[in-house]
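User: Second chain of the day. Same drill as before.
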Amino acid sequence: MNTVLTGISPIAPTPFHEDGTVDYEGMKRVLDCMVDQGVDAICILANYSEQFLLSDDERAKLTRLCIEHVAGRKPVIVTTSHFSTDIAVARAKDVMALGGDMIMMMPPYHGVGIAPPPNVVFEHFAAVNEAISIPIMVQDAPLSGVTMSVDLLANMARELENLSYFKIECPFAADKLAALIAAAGDYIDGPFDGEEAVTLLADLDAGATGTMTSAMFPEKLRPIVQEYRAGNEAAALEHWQACLPLINHENRQCGLRACKTVFKHGGVIASDRLRHPLKPMSQRTIDRLLVLAQDLDIIALKWGK
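Assistant: Same format as last time:
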């Protein structure tokens, strides 16, 4: 990338056919819809993409397809997390070779009982940093079970040249963002948050310059970041308050299932199928989701119709 990434960089869902196979043509439609939503970048193969349910072959094919289909219209961020440092390095090198713009990585973990100490987490990221020349975003999320201190993150920002973006979505994310920026702000290009923008305003107060949400309605969330960064805090608050019912329902009731369901109802994809052992939402939850989405008149609900 030639410019610093700010704004909104949502996670693309991975569509499946009803038989559970990857819908590669549907994936292209997902990407096209996201471009039309006005996103600043697109993240693929993240947890909200059900990356943990994809085979290595599927991952490789999706990486190539997404980078080639987006074709420079937006930067593409590819999640390359793996417990094995060697595999994490290989994935990162593949992304760079294919023309990906950034990688995102979680710290190495396997379940809740196998996690390396801070110095080994540093070594893991350092090995990837040494192998590539594109930016690295660190994903700091409770899912990993690995606690990365502000001191560790700041040290990585100072010492690892390509590691310049941080997605902080742990509890009390705003406090951690503020502390990280205070400790190493000169070495950080992109302090981001996540969690469907449920804490976005507090995180912007703390110094965040971007957010990584689902792809359900980024066109409604992007103005929150834009207005805030332009100094229009009242307008940012108004936009955030309008979005809060849908943000809250997605975050607390739906999770990754929300975007796929909305995309199906909007004709973006043919099926909102999940891979086992994930289970679909109740019809009650779906009904409320669609009402809230319709109230905001979001692009995804009408994109394919």
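The mean pLDDT is 96.

User: Great, on to the next one.
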